[in-house]
# Entry
Amino acid sequence: MIYHEDKSSGVAFPIVAILIAMVAIVGSLMLSSGNRTSARVWVPDGSVVPSYVSSR
# Structure
């Protein structure tokens, strides 16, 4: 008869990997929230309007 041994180390690795990923995500969010720079968006001039848009 063949007896299977229980492996207890198989559960710990995924839990540790998930916790490390969560800490990394929270840390990056905390670092990025402190940097409040205004976003620069290029907006074309009002004179460049497509022909299908009426400027009334």
The helical segments are 9-34.
